[in-house]
Amino acid sequence: MRQEHSWSPPFARVAAYGATSAVLVVCALVGVGLDQGGRLLVGVAAVILAGLALRDTVARPTVRADVGGVEIRDGLGLHRLPWVAVLSVQVETVRRRRRMVVLDTLEVDTIDGLFVLSRRQLGSPPADVAAELEQLRLTSF
């Protein structure tokens, strides 16, 4: 039996993106209390949220892994790689002190290139995902 792990954005967040997008479309079309510029901005926000909801629905899961290898969805493309093709799995932390922002990303370096995935894309903290991926990778050898 193969132990499989997968990570993707939570359905609740995807549904919230879709619902918010629908509300913003109605606001942009009705335009109550909005001038033309405001309607345009609300419409653009609706399109962006709808795009995120669509991408997060279609490209599920973002990462799937078992002892045989790892599968990564990058945009709408799918990359299935055996563990020997994975060079490293690590967490990169970017700190912006002036803005007090800390951003953790999962970096999977493979022979096909570098894949950088955020917590939003994974639905879990990148450090947790990296630890599980490393454990799977080590048990595959």
Describe this structure in words.
The protein has 141 residues and is an alpha+beta fold. The chain folds into 2 domains: 5-58, no CATH class; 63-139, no CATH class. The chain contains 4 helices and 7 strands, in the order βααββββββαα. It has helices at 11-30, 36-58, 119-122, 126-139, and strands at residues 5-7, 63-66, 69-74, 77-82, 86-96, 101-110, 113-118. It has a 4-stranded antiparallel β-sheet, covered by helices on one side. The protein has a 3-stranded antiparallel β-sheet with strand order 5-6-7. Helix 1 packs antiparallel against helix 2. The mean pLDDT is 90.
Please outline the helices and strands.
Blueprint (H helix, E strand, L loop, with lengths): L4 E3 L3 H20 L5 H23 L4 E4 L2 E6 L2 E6 L3 E11 L4 E10 L2 E6 H4 L3 H14 L2
Antiparallel strand pairs: 1-2, 2-3, 3-4, 5-6, 6-7
Output the keywords:
alpha+beta; 2 domains; 43% helix; 3-stranded antiparallel beta sheet; 141 residues
Helix content: 40-55%
Number of strands: 7
Task: Give the SSE order as H and E letters.
Answer: EHHEEEEEEHH
Rg, nearest Å: 19 Å
Distance between the ends = 17 Å
Oligomeric form: single chain
- Estimate the global geometry from the Cα principal axes: elongated
How many domains would you count in the coordinates? Answer: 2
Strand content: 25-35%
